[in-house]
Amino acid sequence: MTAKSNFEIDILNVPTSKINTVDFDHLSFGNVFTDHMFYCDCIDGVWNQPLIRPYAPFLLDPSAKVFHYGQAIFEGMKAYKDSNDDVWLFRPDQNFERFNNSAKRMAMPEVPEDIFMNGLKTLVDMERNWSKKGIGNSLYIRPFMIATGTGVVAAPSNQYRFMIILSPAKSYYSGEVKVIIAEHYSRAANGGIGAAKAAGNYSAQFYPTKLANENGFQQIIWTDDATHTKLEEAGTMNVFFRINDTLYTAPTSERILDGVTRKSLLAIAEKENIAVDVRSVLVSELVEAAKNGSLKEVFGAGTAAVVNPIVGFSYQDVYYELPKIDNSMAMLLKDKLTNIQYKIDEDSFGWTVKV
Ligand SMILES: *Cc1c(COP(=O)(O)O)cnc(C)c1O
């Protein structure tokens, strides 16, 4: 159940834009933000006036619950500019729905649809000059919500702030990605919060990922927490495996996040008559396929990089290198998806929403 809001957004513009100070050719991901931010507070279950204000730090009480109990969730999405200077969102309904599922799991209030969608569209529209044409360029959108209520009592907050900030982005290239298959640490557990985009899920990955980095691996392929035999996600992305000409990815679950990129790639693969099998892949199957040469590709899928090809993996201290192939499914699917997002190909799925 969500509260109803009929509030118009109260907008205060910056006196002068800082856009001319930004070097759009050398953006590092997620470090530059646009001129304005959107926010709306929820106090005792009542959503207040939504605001757009110049992007700036803000004050919180030291006892705010977000600092102590990590009651915080986020989303990640992008806006794309086409060759006619129109700006498009990609399946924003999916992010909205997932955001409120995350909110529910973290005992936070659900954000009313008009606040989320009007906030999103108004802010992206105001900042449309920050959206640049050309494949790879995008405006990364970060909606998030934090518990702002005070008191070091381990109980849900009575106050929350929902915010949206925007960051111009270039195409994301992480270099060659080698991964290590998790044998001890876990990203998520049954009954836990792995299916939510909850802040703590990400900080919990930092330490094991740091250990992997120290050993020369960029990412971890997470396995199921109970047995470490099933392949689940790659870092903060869903993961796909191509064995011979079939594409495999695990079904979403309490431990596997329902990625918008994942489900979009699955739909495109189906349309392209690529054989797809949505089921858990075992670590033993992956090792076997790598040994007998039937393992062709492994790639992560998520909004930031779209697809992130993996060049090899390590398991039980043995490194398996993937073959270098010409007709990569990862690249085919990435191109098809990007062409829809940038309005180069017709969007037969009805995924794109004009701002
Ligand atoms: C956000 C996220 C993904 C990817 O989701 P998209 O909607 O495709 O960006 C996958 N796994 C995890 C753990 C995530 O947090």
**Total E-strand runs:** 20
Low-confidence stretches: none
Structural class: alpha+beta
Q: How much is the average pLDDT?
A: 96
**Strand coverage percent:** 25-35%
What is the approximate shape? Answer: globular
Helix content, binned percent: 10-25%
H and E order: EEEEHEEEHHEEEHEEEEHEEHEEEHE
The value of Rg in angstroms is: 21 Å
Count the helices. How many?
A: 7
Bound molecules: pyridoxal-5'-phosphate
List its salient traits.
355 residues; alpha+beta; ten-stranded mixed beta sheet; 7 helices; 24% helix; binds pyridoxal-5'-phosphate
Give a summary of the structure in a few sentences.
This protein is about 25% helix and about 30% strand.
How does this structure look, described?
Strands 1, 2, 3, 4, 5, 6, 7, 8, 9 and 20 form a ten-stranded mixed β-sheet that branches. The protein has a six-stranded mixed barrel with strand order 10-11-12-13-17-18, surrounded by four helices. 24% of the residues lie in helices and 30% in strands. The protein is built from seven helices and 20 strands. Helix 5 (260-271) crosses helix 7 (329-341). It has 355 residues and is an alpha+beta fold. The mean pLDDT is 96. It has helices at 65-69, 92-105, 113-126, 199-214, 260-271, 283-292, 329-341; strands at residues 10-11, 36-43, 46-47, 51-54, 72-74, 77-81, 87-90, 138-147, 159-169, 177-181, 219-223, 230-234, 237-243, 246-249, 275-278, 281-282, 295-302, 306-315, 318-321, 352-354. The radius of gyration is 21 Å and the shape is globular. Strand 17 and strand 18 form a beta hairpin. Residues 76, 197, 233, 236-238, 257, 259-262, 302-303 line the site of pyridoxal-5'-phosphate.
